[in-house]
Design brief:
By secondary structure, this protein is α+β, with helices and mostly antiparallel strands. It has one domain. Strands 1-2-3 form a three-stranded antiparallel β-sheet.
């Protein structure tokens, strides 16, 4: 199966689809750091992020909880949509 060049069902407004990512950063002399982020698919804004020294599931869960509380452009999001 080939990957598509674009999504079949594109988002048409903010807060319809969020993506999460964990980026690994190695800083010489300091060690590994991890950057969990939550990205809004439509606007491509990073809604929530935190630089961490560990790669725990709780770090991502905290970022998602914060994003749900604020959403993009400061609007409160209905938690029922998640």
């Amino acid at each position: 199966m080939k990957a598509a060049s674009e999504f079949k069902d594109k988002t048409t407004a903010p807060n319809q689809l969020w993506q999460t990512d964990f980026t690994y950063l190695k800083i010489n002399g300091w060690g590994w750091y991890y950057l969990p982020t939550v990205l809004d698919d439509f606007s491509r804004y990073i809604i929530s992020w935190k630089l961490c020294t560990t790669m725990r599931g709780e770090d991502v869960a905290d970022r998602i909880s914060l994003a749900i509380g604020f959403g993009i452009d400061g609007r409160i999001i209905d938690k029922g949509i998640m």
